[in-house]
Design brief:
By secondary structure, this protein is of the alpha+beta class. The strands form five sheets. Strands 4-3-5-16-6 form a five-stranded mixed β-sheet, sandwiched between helices. It has a three-stranded antiparallel β-sheet with strand order 13-7-14. The protein is elongated and about 80 Å long. Strand 3, helix 5 and strand 4 form a beta-alpha-beta unit. The protein has ten helices and 16 strands.
Amino acid sequence: MDKLSAMRTFSCVVEHGSFSRAADLLGIPKARVSQRVADLEKALGVRLLNRTTRAISLTADGLAYAEQCRQVLDSIEELEARVMGVTSSPKGRLRVETQTAFSRWILSPKLIEFRDRYPQIQVLLGAHHQVRNLLEDGIDCAIRGGPVDDSSLSALHVMDVHAGLYASPGYMQDFGPTAEPEVLERADLVGWFDPRTNTPRPWFLRSGAAAYDLKRTPRLLLDDPESAVAAATMGAGITPASPFAVEHLVRQGRLVPVLPQWHLRPQPVHIVYPASRFLSARVRTFVDWAFQMMSNDAKLHLRPHDLAVIGNAGRGATP
């Protein structure tokens, strides 16, 4: 069996959802398409496709194999083009992962620019607040907050995020003045917890050279920062958030910064990708574009005291 031909045939069947359509595109009989896929399944020792008289569908093994198969074929095509000296626009499927807030407020609104600039790249963007394994899940690259301690990944540092504290105007009016971080010890707090360990994320606050470590644990803990922000807008209490994720809520008067001169310990943001993998043109193109875009996006470089100024200006504006 020609493994590469079988992989290309299988990938074509998956992409077009039909043995007949794959046969037409490849210029070979339908029986040969079916035989190549069957030979591939026999060599791998797993069933890749479920077949009925009306449709075909991927098995769980087939889904995992199809993703890796497509990446291998794209890499081979790009490598051959490079060796032959062919210059062309990057193309192929690109699987990207990022955190929910980054996807919603930073990456998704700008992807139309990337799509129009590189029309032959198909982007699959996944938004999660949990860290996934890039190699096991067939992910080309990811944008992540926090330190990178995985030696299997290459990491490009983009910036640092200074998360501040926010609450609804109604809650703060009832709570009263907040001049020093010690007042947080008697406030209602909406915190985050790590779903892998069920442990609360600590609140290490900084203001210049000053520091304050919150002694009490919030009674309300969520594993999704976006959900914590939603709870805070309804008066649940004070919650940490990245300035870029709550800027619109501050402008709308639904949240106000709390202790704006203080912020949580800065969290680095990296673009990461497997260190052991050949970096294809499409991945390299996306990494360069994302790095430039995030470096220049003013929203990403906001700090809590910047939003305090925005909030005060909004409350003082004439309707």
